[in-house]
């Protein structure tokens, strides 16, 4: 008996191809799902990081705005402080000027001999002043020039001008602030101090009584009369 060869007549190759295609399809679907999952995870992660960074940025922006407000407040306070200190310094300067102006007048009133009537004090510059007034005689002017240095406020004066008007001698003296005088501030800006004048008796020629007094060029400065002793 001759053995028969078994032949498979079924389309097994097609079946294998179908199985391979199905397996490939499942693999592709699974890979696609994994890819989509990774994309979703990446998107969610990045979105979370972006949201977190945006939140931090908002906090930083709010902090910067708060710091800007505080800086403006500090600048305002600094400006107010500078303004206050400037006003304080100005007030102190004015106080010093008033005090020194009063001191000058008081020192002159203290040493001025009888018969001398000061009509004005005007600042020429920081340390030089012009004294104008009237005297009953030339000797009174000489006495005034001798006693002015004793005030410790002014130095030795020089005679600028003397003019006989009716029955009195009108005169002008230039005097510098003494180097030893404890004076502060800018006295060139002190307003002219005015004092009232009074008529006096006839005066003689001042040059006869004060021949050694240095005479400076005539000054054009004038002063308004006002009260003084």
TrEMBL record:
It comes from Eikenella exigua. It comes from the Bacteria. Residues 57-111 form a coiled coil. Keywords: Coiled coil, Membrane, Transmembrane, Transmembrane helix. The keyword Membrane applies. The chain crosses the membrane at residues 27-51. InterPro entries: Extracell_DNA_Util/SecSys_Comp, PilN. Residues 210-229 are annotated as: Disordered. GO terms for biological process: type IV pilus assembly; type IV pilus-dependent motility. The keyword Coiled coil applies. This is Pilus assembly protein PilP.
């Amino acid at each position: 008996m001759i053995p028969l060869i078994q032949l498979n007549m079924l389309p097994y190759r097609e079946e294998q191809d179908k199985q391979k295609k199905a397996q490939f399809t499942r693999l592709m679907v699974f890979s696609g799902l994994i890819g989509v999952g990774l994309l979703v995870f990446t998107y969610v992660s990045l979105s979370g990081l972006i949201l977190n960074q945006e939140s931090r940025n908002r906090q930083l922006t709010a902090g910067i705005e708060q710091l800007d407000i505080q800086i403006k407040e500090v600048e305002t306070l600094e400006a107010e402080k500078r303004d206050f200190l400037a006003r304080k310094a100005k007030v102190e300067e004015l106080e010093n000027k008033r005090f020194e102006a009063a001191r000058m007048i008081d020192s002159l009133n203290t040493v001025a001999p009888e018969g001398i009537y000061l009509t004005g004090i005007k600042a020429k510059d920081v340390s030089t002043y012009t004294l104008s007034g009237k005297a009953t005689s030339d000797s009174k002017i000489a006495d005034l020039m001798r006693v002015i240095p004793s005030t410790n406020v002014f130095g030795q004066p020089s005679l600028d001008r003397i003019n006989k008007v009716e029955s009195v001698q009108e005169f002008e003296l230039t005097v510098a602030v003494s180097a030893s005088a404890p004076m502060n501030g800018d006295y060139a800006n002190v307003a002219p101090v005015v004092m009232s004048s009074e008529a006096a008796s006839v005066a003689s020629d001042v040059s006869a009584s004060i021949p050694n007094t240095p005479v400076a060029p005539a000054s054009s400065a004038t002063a308004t009369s006002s009260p003084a002793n």
